[in-house]
Amino acid sequence: MPHYAILIYERETPGGVADLPPEVLEAHARVESRIADTGGALIAGYATEPSAKTRSLRGSAVTEGPFAVSPEAMAGFFIVEARDLDHAVQIGTFVPVLDGGVEVRPLLG
């Protein structure tokens, strides 16, 4: 089955994952089983550190902070196996997001 990236963008909390409400953390803990219930598979999933720890590179220039400044920051991502893009989008609806959204992208390879 093809692989897809599910990118999570949401309002940052000052302490990162440690400051997420318990119900959001509990919902994240259920994502893998919900994916499996639809015939997909979770390959990997990671939360990211707060954007203050991000470094962006453009050519040889390195700057502090994310590449694109937005009210929502990239908070994490999942790599999933899904039958097709529609299935990956369905899986994306399982991802709990605190004041933001997700982006689903097919992966090459």
Plain-language structure description:
The strands form two sheets. The chain has a four-stranded antiparallel β-sheet with strand order 2-5-1-6, covered by helices on one side. Strands 3-4 form a two-stranded antiparallel sheet. The longest helix has 16 residues, at 22-37. The protein is built from two helices and six strands; from the N terminus they run βαββββαβ. It has one domain (3-106): Dimeric alpha+beta barrel (Alpha-Beta Plaits, 2-Layer Sandwich). The chain is globular. Helix content is 22%, strand content 36%. It has helices at residues 22-37, 85-92, and strands spanning 3-10, 41-47, 55-58, 61-64, 73-81, 100-106. It is α+β, with helices and mostly antiparallel strands.
- Any idea of the CATH topology? Alpha-Beta Plaits
How much of the sequence lies in strands comes to 35-45%
Rg measurement, Å: 15 Å
Beta-strand segment tally = 6
Strand order of the largest sheet: 2-5-1-6
Report the oligomer: single chain
Mean pLDDT: 93
Q: How does the overall form come out from the CA principal axes?
A: globular
Summarize the structure.
This protein has two helices and six strands, in the order E-H-E-E-E-E-H-E. The chain has helices spanning about 20-35, 85-90, and strands at about 5-10, 40-45, 55-60, 60-65, 75-80, 100-105. The relative contact order is 0.35.
